[in-house]
């Protein structure tokens, strides 16, 4: 099974930026669409963004409002989430996962076991 490791989180002031990374082991990274989710304290995990296998197509949750950019480097088996203009409500643990296909109406994740995620805390 592919292992996904998130990193890059931290504490930042409102309006600041962070760049998250998701490093994947194994040879199947480029076979999957990939994406980000987040879970705030006391809330359900929610979808943030998805990127197609080639990186040519991306889709974001409405709350992103143009502030985040998802990208991937298949040669490095790594996906990124550049987050700008961060708000306190973006505070959450951010997770990555693979998707069976690039289908924004279904968003079927491949892996049931979520990693540890990376904590993003935005202070006001």
Description:
The protein is an all-beta fold and about 120 residues long. The chain contains no helices and ten strands. The strands form two sheets. A six-stranded mixed β-sheet has the order 2-10-9-4-5-6, with no helix packed on it. Strand 5 and strand 6 form a beta hairpin. The radius of gyration is 13 Å and the shape is globular.
Provide a quick synopsis of the model.
The chain has strands at 4-7, 10-13, 18-24, 33-39, 46-51, 58-60, 68-73, 78-83, 92-99, 118-123. It is mainly β and 124 residues long.
Poorly predicted runs of 5 or more residues? none
Helix residue percentage:
under 10%
Number of distinct helices: 0
Biggest pleated sheet = 6 strands, mixed
Instruction: Write down the overall mean pLDDT.
Output: 95
**Got a strand count?**
10
Distance between the termini: 39 Å
Shape: globular
Give me the secondary-structure category: mainly beta
Order of neighbouring strands in the sheet with most strands: 2-10-9-4-5-6
Bin the strand percentage.
over 45%
Radius of gyration: 13 Å
Write the element-wise H/E pattern from the N-terminal end onward: EEEEEEEEEE
């Amino acid at each position: 099974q592919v292992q996904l490791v998130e990193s890059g989180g931290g504490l930042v002031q409102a309006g600041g930026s962070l760049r998250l990374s998701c490093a994947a082991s194994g040879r199947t990274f480029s076979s999957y669409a990939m994406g980000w989710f987040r879970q705030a304290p006391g809330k359900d995990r929610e979808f943030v963004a998805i990127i197609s296998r080639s990186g040519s197509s991306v889709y974001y949750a409405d709350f992103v409002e143009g502030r985040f950019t998802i990208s991937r480097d298949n040669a490095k088996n790594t996906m990124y989430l550049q987050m700008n203009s961060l708000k306190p409500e973006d505070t959450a643990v951010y997770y990555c996962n693979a998707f069976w296909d690039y289908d924004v109406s279904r968003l079927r994740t491949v892996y049931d076991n979520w990693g540890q995620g990376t904590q993003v805390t935005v202070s006001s």
